[in-house]
Amino acid sequence: MAGPVNRLLEILLAFPTLLLALLFVALLGPSASSLLISVGIGTAPGYARLVRAQALKVRQSGYVEAARALGHPWHRLFLQHIAPNAFRPLVSLVALGIGQSVVWASGLSFLGLGVVPPSPEWGALLEAGKINVTVAWWLEVLPGIAIVLVALSFTQIGRYLQQRAEGESR
After folding, report:
1. Residue 114 gets which letter from DSSP?
2. Dist. CA 162–CA 166, nearest whole Å
3. Rounded CA gap, 42 and 17, in Å?
4. Which of 2, 40, 73, 150 is spaced 20 to 30 Å from 156 by Cα?
5. Residue 61: DSSP 8-state
6. DSSP H/E element including 72
7. How far apart are CA 82 and CA 3, in angstroms?
8. Is the dihedral of CA 131, 136, 141, 147 positive or negative?
9. pTM above the 0.90 mark?
10. Residue 168 predicted with pLDDT over 70
Protein backbone atom coordinates (compact mmCIF):
# COMPACT_ATOMS: atom_id res chain seq x y z
CA MET A 1 0.00 0.00 0.00
CA ALA A 2 2.85 2.42 0.73
CA GLY A 3 4.24 2.00 -2.78
CA PRO A 4 1.21 3.32 -4.72
CA VAL A 5 0.60 6.07 -2.17
CA ASN A 6 4.22 7.20 -2.50
CA ARG A 7 3.94 7.21 -6.28
CA LEU A 8 0.74 9.27 -6.15
CA LEU A 9 2.40 11.74 -3.78
CA GLU A 10 5.43 12.00 -6.06
CA ILE A 11 3.18 12.68 -9.06
CA LEU A 12 1.28 15.39 -7.16
CA LEU A 13 4.53 16.91 -5.84
CA ALA A 14 5.91 17.08 -9.39
CA PHE A 15 3.39 19.81 -10.19
CA PRO A 16 3.72 23.30 -8.72
CA THR A 17 1.07 23.72 -6.03
CA LEU A 18 -0.68 26.65 -7.66
CA LEU A 19 -0.76 24.87 -11.02
CA LEU A 20 -2.28 21.80 -9.39
CA ALA A 21 -4.88 24.00 -7.69
CA LEU A 22 -5.62 25.66 -11.05
CA LEU A 23 -6.16 22.23 -12.60
CA PHE A 24 -8.65 21.16 -9.95
CA VAL A 25 -10.54 24.47 -10.03
CA ALA A 26 -10.80 24.14 -13.80
CA LEU A 27 -12.16 20.60 -13.41
CA LEU A 28 -14.58 21.39 -10.58
CA GLY A 29 -15.70 24.85 -11.72
CA PRO A 30 -15.49 28.16 -9.89
CA SER A 31 -17.05 28.05 -6.41
CA ALA A 32 -16.00 28.42 -2.80
CA SER A 33 -16.01 24.66 -2.19
CA SER A 34 -13.95 23.90 -5.30
CA LEU A 35 -11.50 26.62 -4.26
CA LEU A 36 -11.06 25.02 -0.83
CA ILE A 37 -10.73 21.54 -2.31
CA SER A 38 -8.25 22.73 -4.93
CA VAL A 39 -5.97 24.53 -2.50
CA GLY A 40 -6.25 21.60 -0.07
CA ILE A 41 -5.33 19.04 -2.72
CA GLY A 42 -2.50 21.28 -3.89
CA THR A 43 -0.96 21.51 -0.42
CA ALA A 44 -1.80 18.04 0.94
CA PRO A 45 1.00 16.03 -0.73
CA GLY A 46 3.73 17.97 1.04
CA TYR A 47 2.10 17.46 4.42
CA ALA A 48 1.45 13.79 3.71
CA ARG A 49 5.08 13.22 2.87
CA LEU A 50 6.24 15.01 6.03
CA VAL A 51 3.83 13.02 8.21
CA ARG A 52 5.02 9.76 6.69
CA ALA A 53 8.67 10.64 7.23
CA GLN A 54 8.03 11.67 10.84
CA ALA A 55 6.00 8.52 11.53
CA LEU A 56 8.77 6.30 10.16
CA LYS A 57 11.32 8.15 12.28
CA VAL A 58 9.23 7.89 15.45
CA ARG A 59 8.40 4.23 14.77
CA GLN A 60 12.10 3.37 15.00
CA SER A 61 12.69 5.34 18.22
CA GLY A 62 13.67 3.70 21.49
CA TYR A 63 10.48 4.41 23.41
CA VAL A 64 8.33 2.81 20.69
CA GLU A 65 10.59 -0.24 20.65
CA ALA A 66 10.36 -0.42 24.45
CA ALA A 67 6.55 -0.22 24.34
CA ARG A 68 6.52 -2.91 21.63
CA ALA A 69 8.79 -5.10 23.79
CA LEU A 70 6.35 -4.69 26.69
CA GLY A 71 3.64 -6.17 24.49
CA HIS A 72 1.51 -3.10 23.81
CA PRO A 73 -0.96 -3.65 20.95
CA TRP A 74 -0.39 -1.89 17.64
CA HIS A 75 -3.29 0.55 18.02
CA ARG A 76 -2.04 1.66 21.45
CA LEU A 77 1.49 2.18 20.09
CA PHE A 78 0.09 4.29 17.29
CA LEU A 79 -2.31 6.38 19.38
CA GLN A 80 -0.04 7.00 22.37
CA HIS A 81 3.42 7.17 20.84
CA ILE A 82 3.63 7.40 17.06
CA ALA A 83 0.76 9.76 16.16
CA PRO A 84 1.36 12.47 18.78
CA ASN A 85 5.09 12.59 18.12
CA ALA A 86 4.73 12.43 14.34
CA PHE A 87 2.17 15.25 14.16
CA ARG A 88 3.72 17.61 16.74
CA PRO A 89 6.31 19.16 14.36
CA LEU A 90 3.61 19.76 11.75
CA VAL A 91 1.61 22.18 13.90
CA SER A 92 3.92 25.08 13.05
CA LEU A 93 4.05 24.10 9.38
CA VAL A 94 0.28 24.06 9.14
CA ALA A 95 0.10 27.58 10.58
CA LEU A 96 2.64 28.71 8.00
CA GLY A 97 0.71 26.92 5.26
CA ILE A 98 -2.56 28.66 6.14
CA GLY A 99 -1.11 32.04 5.22
CA GLN A 100 0.22 30.64 1.99
CA SER A 101 -3.15 29.07 1.21
CA VAL A 102 -4.92 32.39 1.77
CA VAL A 103 -2.63 33.99 -0.81
CA TRP A 104 -3.22 31.13 -3.29
CA ALA A 105 -6.99 31.21 -2.82
CA SER A 106 -7.00 34.98 -3.30
CA GLY A 107 -4.89 34.61 -6.42
CA LEU A 108 -7.27 32.03 -7.88
CA SER A 109 -10.25 34.25 -7.11
CA PHE A 110 -8.46 37.21 -8.70
CA LEU A 111 -8.15 35.13 -11.86
CA GLY A 112 -11.89 34.43 -11.76
CA LEU A 113 -11.51 30.80 -10.68
CA GLY A 114 -12.67 31.23 -7.09
CA VAL A 115 -15.97 32.26 -5.64
CA VAL A 116 -18.88 33.47 -7.74
CA PRO A 117 -18.77 37.31 -8.04
CA PRO A 118 -21.55 38.35 -5.62
CA SER A 119 -19.74 36.52 -2.81
CA PRO A 120 -17.16 38.62 -0.98
CA GLU A 121 -13.62 37.28 -1.21
CA TRP A 122 -10.37 39.23 -1.16
CA GLY A 123 -9.16 38.05 -4.54
CA ALA A 124 -12.53 38.78 -6.11
CA LEU A 125 -12.50 42.23 -4.50
CA LEU A 126 -9.07 42.89 -5.98
CA GLU A 127 -10.28 41.79 -9.40
CA ALA A 128 -13.43 43.92 -9.20
CA GLY A 129 -11.52 47.01 -8.12
CA LYS A 130 -8.80 46.87 -10.77
CA ILE A 131 -10.80 48.86 -13.31
CA ASN A 132 -11.21 51.74 -10.83
CA VAL A 133 -7.64 51.80 -9.51
CA THR A 134 -6.93 55.32 -10.79
CA VAL A 135 -10.14 56.77 -9.34
CA ALA A 136 -10.68 54.70 -6.17
CA TRP A 137 -7.29 53.26 -5.20
CA TRP A 138 -8.60 51.96 -1.87
CA LEU A 139 -10.60 49.30 -3.70
CA GLU A 140 -7.28 47.64 -4.54
CA VAL A 141 -5.17 48.61 -1.56
CA LEU A 142 -7.45 47.58 1.31
CA PRO A 143 -8.11 43.97 0.19
CA GLY A 144 -4.40 43.66 -0.65
CA ILE A 145 -3.43 44.84 2.82
CA ALA A 146 -5.93 42.41 4.36
CA ILE A 147 -4.41 39.50 2.42
CA VAL A 148 -0.87 40.48 3.42
CA LEU A 149 -1.80 40.98 7.09
CA VAL A 150 -3.56 37.62 7.36
CA ALA A 151 -0.67 35.82 5.65
CA LEU A 152 1.89 37.58 7.87
CA SER A 153 -0.16 36.85 10.99
CA PHE A 154 -0.30 33.14 10.29
CA THR A 155 3.41 33.17 9.45
CA GLN A 156 4.17 34.77 12.81
CA ILE A 157 1.92 32.26 14.60
CA GLY A 158 3.75 29.44 12.83
CA ARG A 159 7.15 30.84 13.82
CA TYR A 160 6.00 31.22 17.42
CA LEU A 161 4.72 27.64 17.53
CA GLN A 162 7.96 26.42 15.98
CA GLN A 163 10.03 28.25 18.61
CA ARG A 164 7.83 26.83 21.36
CA ALA A 165 8.23 23.30 19.98
CA GLU A 166 12.00 23.70 19.70
CA GLY A 167 12.16 25.09 23.25
CA GLU A 168 10.21 22.12 24.63
CA SER A 169 12.41 19.59 22.83
CA ARG A 170 15.59 20.90 24.47
Report:
1. S
2. 6
3. 5
4. 40
5. S
6. none
7. 21
8. negative
9. no
10. no
